[in-house]
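Case study 2.
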Amino acid sequence: MEHRDAFVTGGAYGVLFVLGAVEAIMGSFEYSWTVGPVPAAALGCCAALLVTCLLAGWAMRSLGGALLPAIAWILVSFLLAMPDAPGSVIITNTASGEWYLYGGAISAAIGVAVAFAIWVRGMTGAKPVR
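Prediction:
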């Protein structure tokens, strides 16, 4: 029975990694949509990543739950921001591109930090200060 539980848990972590990668791929092609001067799609992608990290950490009840989609998002997004041999890039050096990359990295860091704080609090049995 324990082997099956470990297999299911490992599969769930794998799905979270793939989810982070899929969010990065989708966001890398759709980040440039704006509403006036506001990079709405980039901010929406950042919010989606933050929610994904928070919910994944909560659902898995571990830091790894939040960390895996964040790592996948960072790896894929920054890989797609690098130029290839002919010099073309997917994520351009525009305001929307910068909001997408830097805002996403900050969103991932916040999601992981909050999951870490909740995980540590849960491990120590500390109660919130009121």
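The mean pLDDT is 90.
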